[in-house]
Structure formats: structure tokens, C-alpha cells
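Data availability excerpt. The first of two example chains:
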Amino acid sequence: MTAPSANCSATHWDFDVTEQVAADDYGPVSFDYTYHVGESFNDVPASYMFYAYFETLLHSGVTAGCTASTYCPNNNVTRAQMVKFLANAWQFEL
């Protein structure tokens, strides 16, 4: 298991698990899982309709929110922020 990302708050944990299964006549097979525990942003509860999308954006490295603990889902997105989102999503270096 690996420690949570340094930019995540204490109530937000991600950890990676690799499971190896072996059976007679077959070599070991690895399965990799990433588990997420806790809400990443104080202003986006798990009951929020777009919660899963915000979590996906965070874990994909597209955005980290407004601060380490808030996403600010009701704020307008500037052109500069949108360029940064797209560059991160397409893995361009700015």
C-alpha cells in the first residue's frame, strides 16, 4: 500500500492494493485496485449529484479544486482555468 497523496487533506485517503492470485497450472495473476476513503472536498458531499465527477477530475489530475479542502462548485470557471483543465486532461505541459 502507498501513502495518500501529499496534497490531500487528512480526511481523504487513497491507497493502492495489488492482489496476486495463483492456482495450479496457472501463473500468478495480478489485480490492481485503488481505494478511496472519505470526501475530498468539504463543499462537495457524497450526496451531491456531481460528486463522482469531481472525484474523477481530482484523481485523474485534471484539477485539485480551489484549495486543498474545497472545490467551489458554484464558482464560474475562467478561461485560464479551462485551459489548465484541458492541458491536464490531455497531459500537455504548460
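And the second chain:
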Amino acid sequence: MTEWDMSDTAHILDDAEFADGDFVLVSADGVRFRTASYQLLWASHALRDAAAASSANERSITFTDAEIESADILRAFLRFITSGVLPVSRKKMGNPTNGLDRLPRLVRFLEKYQCHTAQRFAMVCVREGLRRGVCSPLCAFVTGATVGDDVTVTAALGADPQTWGASSAAESKALVMSAFKVNPFGDEAKASLEEGDEDAHVLDPSSMPFIAWSQTPGEYIWALSRAWKKARGPDGKGEGDLLWYFEELLRAAKDTSILALTTRQSTRPDSIPSVIGLSTA
């Protein structure tokens, strides 16, 4: 990962919203945020430790992970710890992908930097948003899966299927059709792809939008795919059985993952570098 040179201020832009405070955060894409140190250091154990190693004149941290430490995520983080606001829009209620662009990445940031209280509160807010219809089941499922919060994941799958949303509303067909610039299937098949499946639920793995697939850990996608097939099979009862099948399959997947992790850990070196990708100045 590329680290920004703090001496080269030509590449650093100041955020208009967070412009005051005694602590500086610089995002991986070069945006500078100023905030009150007491709010920041209360929220994060890891950032508190990093701040202790920074300069006494102006404490600052430069982030390097472009995926979860970009300006949009730092802005969402600061809004959440100062105002309790999550990046889910009430104006987009009913859109299955509402919040998917930032919310899962925000909770990953909270987890990475040991914002334990903030992360727990964020997941409570997600479940409450799910109950009130502000947060879609798809967004709640992906967000919960991102940090292994199975309470939120099962709450999402247990929601009324009528609130899940249709795949046709979740993703432009342009992404799918871009894979078929030279269409090998003929005009009839091409028309079918362009129209999409109007009745497909976004929690059907075969119809789930790419933004959800790309952020969901493998064991959750695997369990949902198998559970969906089983629930929709001749012996299943549709969505009514989905949650039960999913929980059993996810448990099996996690048991397998734990076994594999234990095997890997037994052969790994004693010295492991820090996973926190930041530099202090």
C-alpha cells in the first residue's frame, strides 16, 4: 500500500465538514480531517495507541488502506462517533442496496481499529433500522456477515421476504451485459438478460448484486447458496425454511474454517507483523 508523504501538502485536501480539532486524520486517498482528540481516542483503542507514538506538537495519523480507510469511510466514521449517524439514507428506503457502498466498510473499520463500543452500537442501529425499514435486509445481511455478527445476519434472513426487494431494483443490467460484448447466445437470450428476473429476491445468491457478493465472506455466501437451494427444493418450504437451513450450514462452515485455521496457526512463524495499516506523524 502506498503511504502519503505528509510533507507534500500539495496532494492533501482539507475536508469541509471536519475542519476543526486538535487531531488530524489523513485518508488513504489524501483528504485531511480534523477532529477533537477526546472523541477519537475514546472511540478507538488502536488509534489511542497510535496517537501515543505521534508527535506532541500536532498529533496526526495517515491511513493507507484504500478500501476501508478512504475519505468516505473516515467521514462516515467521524459522523458516527460524533453524531451517531450511519451511512444509510432515509431517502432511499426500499432500495435493496441502500447503504451497501459504505456501511459494511465502516463496520470493518470499527472492527479493525478496536472501536468496540461504537461497533456494538452500530450493529444495534442496523438491526433497529432493519425493523423500521430504514436498513434493507440485504444491507443488514452483508454488514453483519462482514464482521461475523450472526445475530444481525439471522435477523436479516428472518425479515418478511416482501421487504427483501427484487434484483431488478438492485443492480443495473449494464454490469451483466458488459460481460457479453460479443453475444454468443442470440437475440432472444440477450433480451432475457436485459430484462432480468423481475421476481427474483436480492437474497437469492444467483440474483444478489455484485456489490453484495464482493463484500460478503465466503462461508456466508456458501451457506446462503446451499440453504436457498434446499429451501426452494421439493422438500423445502420456501423462505420459511431458509433461516433454519442457513444456520445449520453456516455452523458447519465455521467449524470447518476453525479447524483449517488451527492447522495453519500450528505452522505459522512466532512473529506476526501488525495488521493495522497506518503511519504516524
